[in-house]
């Protein structure tokens, strides 16, 4: 994924939150490739070197075009300075739910952190903030049967939905708080929210995100049986491309954009990986995991609790509005999964 960074000194400064994150890393790389200057926030300033090294592995020498600010979503300190001088803000950072113990508060950090970012951006005269939300925030009410109603930009998940996990709830409430803020803001700043599916793609470092870890577990035989669960999938590079389009395109102002690709059951993912990696096919599962085992596992596994409400539900999205406004279409999900797996193999991660 290498390549020279465009040296266009007149390009604007963009703040990307949460620079150590998987999506943030590729967001920084994508912005630099398009000639923007980037400032990214870190909770720990000691990680500047690692982030710079990872980004430069993707785009080449960044020179003085990548800078850092210290800021934490849980604290007010640092956000005013981080946003100062920026034309755009891309708010990617959010607490993750996978692996969290029962009672972990994800809503507070996600919602309050988003509001800290928005307040700082408005005070700094930022033109537009693009927030990464989630397709989990656009879930239609469950109906009997496998195929669920198609969701679009007008669909909102009910945060009081029985069984809704804390991560999904945090994404809903954080996005709602962002829209409430922008409706009352007098600065003239605009907002765009982007709602992806399960995000997969090339690895930037050896530390992989939970979604990449899922693909890694399939290809290394660490999934003994396949639960009847699936997701709409978004390639990380398509997601970055959409954020950059949404950041500056007039038509994206104050829009909610669906960025979820086509739906794959876990069984489809396993089949695609067996076909793409015949030398590993013996390790990739074929056997179906009974639903009752997944439900029982939810008593002690946060990962299982996250997946139980998704059992047997085919949830799909309409990206027509996004395509109409920004001429954006996601890559086929099968291709995205295979590219992700190939990156994990080629980089020696699996």
UniProtKB/TrEMBL annotation:
<protein>
    <submittedName>
        <fullName>NAD-dependent epimerase/dehydratase family protein</fullName>
    </submittedName>
</protein>
<keyword id="KW-0560">Oxidoreductase</keyword>
<dbReference type="InterPro" id="IPR050425">
    <property type="entry name" value="NAD(P)_dehydrat-like"/>
</dbReference>
<dbReference type="InterPro" id="IPR036291">
    <property type="entry name" value="NAD(P)-bd_dom_sf"/>
</dbReference>
<dbReference type="InterPro" id="IPR001509">
    <property type="entry name" value="Epimerase_deHydtase"/>
</dbReference>
<dbReference type="Pfam" id="PF01370">
    <property type="entry name" value="Epimerase"/>
</dbReference>
<comment type="similarity">
    <text>Belongs to the NAD(P)-dependent epimerase/dehydratase family. Dihydroflavonol-4-reductase subfamily.</text>
</comment>
<feature type="region of interest" description="Disordered">
    <location>
        <begin position="140"/>
        <end position="162"/>
    </location>
</feature>
<feature type="domain" description="NAD-dependent epimerase/dehydratase">
    <location>
        <begin position="14"/>
        <end position="254"/>
    </location>
</feature>
